[in-house]
């Protein structure tokens, strides 16, 4: 038994916590969460094992977790039961203390006492039954399942079929429908390897059932093995998609279940009611397991344990949205009734599927609602808008703010004036003028004698911000400091000093800004640019550099609404949906390698008109195997062979910061005509005179990256062009991406297309973006359900702030259990 000093927990002081959960992770970490507004967190357990949150998150994903509920005692201490400390390898006599560190929380010291009672319900325990205890699951199978993330019964219950197969009746071969997934009984008539006219080998089997014949084909096979299996006369049940070639119907790579020799179909069907005469679930992730085995295991797990799944969705919500109790939904999703509609099942649109998605979204949104509410309750700085600098800046600007900028700015100002911390996300397409909005917000803070930190993801972007901003700030008499990791020695010391004394009113930098050594005198506002590039930890650390400073997050990644709700669900959202006037859309074209000389012609033409050009390469150095042309090499070639009379510059990520700056400065000053660059220019570079961008190997870039890159041109009032050069050997997705770029410059449409092409997991990089992995919900498919669940969840928190009413105790407990450390890790803290 050990005592953890609760003061060490990052808990909000205004609400009392009653319960803390500790999860042990099998790699030596533990995860805590609380049934209250104490933030869930993860901590590594030993000094040597101290890792950052993200590593712990990965550990959590991989770990089989044991859960223990620990009560918080009167004197604000929490107790770890003996079994927990044993699992931690702590000896009685050790005292345990939680210490917050940059890497998480460390556990040290430990004192003995008696174990606290466990309050786990029997049902929960049942759901945590290891899979070995399921009938038919031996150690080998258990291991195999565990590899697929199915360690305990609960995992199995929530591993839903990814499709369903109609075996209510078997199809007749004569009536197989091309395009349909059919199941039919047949006898092997002939089998042999063959070749296409092009010389490609395949294995061909003809099967028939009296009503007709159909050809089965394999294109990857082992001939000897296939010949042994596919003996004429053998009978089996075949499943696969029927395709029509001319007059011939074929099924490629079908699944087969052989009829045991000498047995008759009717007897087999009658003897295996799990596989015949019904709609069958087909499970994902079955490599190395047969569907038949998995089906049996699932049936056993569902039959024995589904009743232990407690329904937590409030009945009124279930009623309002036509849902089912959770256990019934699971039952129906695994083993649908025989009169279910196959298509609805396969679309994941049955009441059962909707229920499961709703349930998952509801608890996510409930957590987000609570967080949002919790932040709203925290005490923050109530800035006054004195207009001292802001008015002055508006006078200095050679243009006026767009309506969208004005609207967003007033939303920000309202937040800043409120006595609670601002947590706001400003989303706006590239070039919409976010930097200016950020600067205006910064000036409001400065007017109140507070400091501002502006954090950018890369040195070059930080420098760019610095150059832009300090130009205006100098004119206003506001002192700006640049702090990047390349700042060394005396210069660095001086900068730190300026920040600590408060002399530096606006501090711009990379992650260097949140390092330990950096101390602010009075940080009032933290601005994070291009959020998606940051780990999630930074937002929290930045917050701790001041006393609940306001936080403004800016992103150019146009996140579709459904995703934004889950990724940034507790941030207030402002959208700058208007570009400054006078911009002409960038004309975008795909050009194949064969037209390279014409592309060069376009560059030459523009430069002749006094304009400048970018040529973008995907890599810095030519990798041995690939045919990518390296930026450095190409810059040289462009200079010497193609444009000997023009000035070609080179910018890449491996250059020293001062070199980069010199190159950028030269380009900005028109001392170079063509800038060959890698994607380091992706964010924030602002040279309105550049009117052409040629992107080499455009097919290698992601859509949002292409959009960001393209945003570097079209910044002036002249017509700009973007040419996507490609070798012509495009994959289907690659072609889709480039066509999207050609057809629109609307960041939201591009993002949506991207989401469609890549799927949500890939969209921002799940872990980085903090997008939760859903067990059953599909954020693309279930967007509507998400919105409904969000409305319900938020209205619960609206009615019962803090979710403290006794009738909501169950909800609250379930919420704490489900949230785990994840959403905190997701940067939603
Ligand atoms: P973002 O960061 O949103 O991509 P920037 O803040 O870099 O966009 O702004 C792009 C360019 O537009 C900059 O040159 C900036 O000075 C200019 N700009 C910003 N707001 C306006 C405005 N209201 N009218 C005209 N130009 C503007
Ligand atoms: Mg920007």
From TrEMBL:
<dbReference type="Pfam" id="PF00271">
    <property type="entry name" value="Helicase_C"/>
</dbReference>
<dbReference type="InterPro" id="IPR004609">
    <property type="entry name" value="ATP-dep_DNA_helicase_RecG"/>
</dbReference>
<comment type="similarity">
    <text>Belongs to the helicase family. RecG subfamily.</text>
</comment>
<feature type="domain" description="Helicase C-terminal">
    <location>
        <begin position="595"/>
        <end position="761"/>
    </location>
</feature>
<dbReference type="InterPro" id="IPR007159">
    <property type="entry name" value="SpoVT-AbrB_dom"/>
</dbReference>
<dbReference type="Pfam" id="PF19833">
    <property type="entry name" value="RecG_dom3_C"/>
</dbReference>
<dbReference type="Pfam" id="PF17191">
    <property type="entry name" value="RecG_wedge"/>
</dbReference>
<keyword id="KW-0234">DNA repair</keyword>
<dbReference type="InterPro" id="IPR033454">
    <property type="entry name" value="RecG_wedge"/>
</dbReference>
<dbReference type="GO" id="GO:0043138">
    <property type="term" value="F:3'-5' DNA helicase activity"/>
</dbReference>
<keyword id="KW-0227">DNA damage</keyword>
<dbReference type="GO" id="GO:0006281">
    <property type="term" value="P:DNA repair"/>
</dbReference>
<comment type="function">
    <text>Plays a critical role in recombination and DNA repair. Helps process Holliday junction intermediates to mature products by catalyzing branch migration. Has replication fork regression activity, unwinds stalled or blocked replication forks to make a HJ that can be resolved. Has a DNA unwinding activity characteristic of a DNA helicase with 3'-5' polarity.</text>
</comment>
<dbReference type="InterPro" id="IPR037914">
    <property type="entry name" value="SpoVT-AbrB_sf"/>
</dbReference>
<dbReference type="GO" id="GO:0003677">
    <property type="term" value="F:DNA binding"/>
</dbReference>
<dbReference type="InterPro" id="IPR011545">
    <property type="entry name" value="DEAD/DEAH_box_helicase_dom"/>
</dbReference>
<dbReference type="Pfam" id="PF00270">
    <property type="entry name" value="DEAD"/>
</dbReference>
<dbReference type="GO" id="GO:0006310">
    <property type="term" value="P:DNA recombination"/>
</dbReference>
<dbReference type="InterPro" id="IPR012340">
    <property type="entry name" value="NA-bd_OB-fold"/>
</dbReference>
<keyword id="KW-0378">Hydrolase</keyword>
<keyword id="KW-0233">DNA recombination</keyword>
<dbReference type="InterPro" id="IPR047112">
    <property type="entry name" value="RecG/Mfd"/>
</dbReference>
<feature type="domain" description="SpoVT-AbrB">
    <location>
        <begin position="67"/>
        <end position="113"/>
    </location>
</feature>
<feature type="domain" description="Helicase ATP-binding">
    <location>
        <begin position="415"/>
        <end position="576"/>
    </location>
</feature>
<dbReference type="InterPro" id="IPR045562">
    <property type="entry name" value="RecG_dom3_C"/>
</dbReference>
<dbReference type="InterPro" id="IPR014001">
    <property type="entry name" value="Helicase_ATP-bd"/>
</dbReference>
<keyword id="KW-0347">Helicase</keyword>
<dbReference type="GO" id="GO:0005524">
    <property type="term" value="F:ATP binding"/>
</dbReference>
<dbReference type="InterPro" id="IPR001650">
    <property type="entry name" value="Helicase_C-like"/>
</dbReference>
<dbReference type="InterPro" id="IPR027417">
    <property type="entry name" value="P-loop_NTPase"/>
</dbReference>
<keyword id="KW-0238">DNA-binding</keyword>
<keyword id="KW-0413">Isomerase</keyword>
<keyword id="KW-0547">Nucleotide-binding</keyword>
<dbReference type="GO" id="GO:0016887">
    <property type="term" value="F:ATP hydrolysis activity"/>
</dbReference>
<protein>
    <recommendedName>
        <fullName>ATP-dependent DNA helicase RecG</fullName>
        <ecNumber>5.6.2.4</ecNumber>
    </recommendedName>
</protein>
<keyword id="KW-0067">ATP-binding</keyword>
């Amino acid at each position: 038994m050990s005592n953890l000093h609760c003061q060490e927990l990052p808990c909000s002081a205004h609400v009392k916590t009653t319960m803390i959960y500790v999860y042990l992770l099998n790699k030596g970490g533990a995860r805590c969460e609380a049934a209250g507004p104490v933030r869930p967190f993860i901590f590594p357990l030993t000094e040597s094992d101290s890792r950052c949150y993200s590593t712990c998150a990965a550990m959590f994903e991989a770990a089989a977790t044991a859960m223990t509920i620990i009560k918080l005692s009167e004197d604000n201490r929490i107790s770890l039961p003996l079994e927990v400390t044993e699992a931690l390898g702590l000896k009685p006599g050790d005292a345990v203390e939680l210490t917050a560190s940059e890497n998480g929380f460390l556990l040290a010291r430990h004192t003995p006492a008696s174990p606290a009672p466990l309050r786990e319900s029997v049902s929960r325990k049942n759901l945590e039954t290891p899979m070995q205890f399921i009938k038919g699951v031996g150690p080998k199978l258990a291991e195999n399942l565990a590899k697929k993330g199915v360690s305990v019964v609960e995992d199995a219950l929530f591993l839903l079929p990814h499709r369903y197969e109609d075996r209510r009746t078997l199809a007749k071969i004569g009536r197989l429908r091309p395009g349909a997934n059919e199941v039919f009984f047949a006898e092997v008539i002939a089998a042999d390897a063959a070749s296409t006219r092009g010389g490609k080998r395949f294995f061909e089997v003809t099967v028939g059932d009296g009503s007709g014949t159909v050809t089965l084909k394999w294109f990857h096979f082992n001939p000897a093995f296939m010949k042994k299996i596919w003996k004429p006369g053998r009978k089996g049940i075949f499943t696969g998609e029927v395709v029509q070639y001319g007059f011939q119907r074929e099924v490629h790579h079908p699944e087969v279940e052989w009829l045991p020799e000498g047995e008759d179909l009717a007897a087999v069907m009658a003897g295996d009611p799990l596989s015949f005469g019904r709609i069958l679930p087909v499970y994902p992730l079955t490599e190395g397991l047969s569907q038949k085995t998995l089906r049996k295991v699932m049936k056993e797990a569902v039959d024995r344990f589904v009743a232990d799944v407690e329904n937590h969705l409030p009945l009124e919500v279930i009623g309002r949205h036509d849902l089912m109790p959770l256990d019934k939904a699971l039952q129906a999703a695994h083993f649908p009734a025989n009169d279910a509609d196959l298509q609805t099942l396969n679309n994941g649109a049955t009441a059962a599927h909707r229920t499961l998605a709703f349930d998952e979204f509801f608890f996510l949104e409930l957590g987000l609602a609570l967080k949002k509410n919790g932040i709203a309750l925290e005490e923050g700085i109530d800035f006054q808008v004195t207009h001292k600098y802001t008015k002055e800046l508006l006078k200095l600007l050679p243009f006026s703010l767009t309506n969208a900028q004005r609207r967003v700015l007033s939303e920000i100002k309202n937040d800043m004036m409120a006595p609670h911390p601002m947590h706001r996300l400003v989303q706006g397409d590239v070039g919409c003028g976010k930097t200016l909005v950020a600067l205006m917000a910064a000036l409001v803070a400065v007017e109140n004698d507070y400091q501002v930190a502006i954090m950018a993801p890369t040195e070059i972007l930080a420098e760019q911000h610095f150059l832009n901003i300090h130009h205006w700030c100098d004119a206003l008499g506001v002192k700006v400091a640049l702090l990047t990791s390349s700042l060394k020695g005396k210069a660095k010391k001086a900068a730190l000093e300026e920040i600590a004394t408060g002399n530096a009113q606006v501090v711009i930098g990379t992650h260097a800004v949140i390092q330990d050594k950096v101390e602010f005198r009075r940080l009032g506002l933290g601005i994070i640019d291009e959020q998606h590039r940051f780990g999630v930890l930074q937002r929290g650390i930045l917050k701790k550099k001041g006393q609940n400073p306001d936080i403004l997050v800016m992103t150019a990644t146009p996140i579709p609404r459904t995703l934004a709700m889950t990724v940034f669900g507790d941030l207030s959202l402002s959208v700058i949906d208007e570009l400054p006037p006078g911009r002409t859309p960038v004309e975008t074209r795909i050009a194949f390698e064969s037209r390279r000389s014409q592309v060069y012609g376009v560059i030459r033409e523009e430069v002749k008109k006094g304009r400048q050009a970018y040529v973008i390469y995907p890599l810095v150095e030519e990798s041995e195997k690939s045919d990518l042309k390296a930026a450095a090499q190409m810059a040289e070639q462009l200079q010497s062979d193609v444009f000997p009379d023009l000035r070609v510059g080179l910018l890449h990520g491996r250059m020293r910061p001062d070199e980069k700056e010199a190159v950028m400065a030269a380009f900005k000053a028109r001392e170079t005509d063509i800038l060959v660059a890698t994607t380091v220019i992706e964010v924030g570079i602002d040279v309105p005179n550049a009117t052409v961008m040629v992107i080499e190997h455009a097919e290698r870039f992601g859509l949002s990256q292409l959009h960001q890159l393209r945003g570097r041109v079209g910044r002036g009032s002249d017509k700009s062009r973007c040419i996507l050069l490609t070798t012509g050997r495009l994959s289907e997705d690659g072609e889709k991406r480039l066509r999207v770029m050609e057809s629109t410059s609307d960041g939201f449409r591009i993002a949506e297309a991207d989401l469609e092409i890549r799927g949500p997991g890939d969209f921002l990089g799940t872990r980085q973006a903090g997008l939760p992995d859903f067990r059953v919900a599909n954020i693309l498919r279930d967007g509507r359900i998400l919105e409904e669940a969000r409305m319900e969840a938020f209205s619960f928190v609206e009615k019962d702030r803090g979710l403290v009413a006794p009738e909501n105790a169950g909800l609250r407990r379930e919420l704490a259990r489900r949230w785990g450390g994840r959403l905190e890790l997701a940067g939603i803290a």
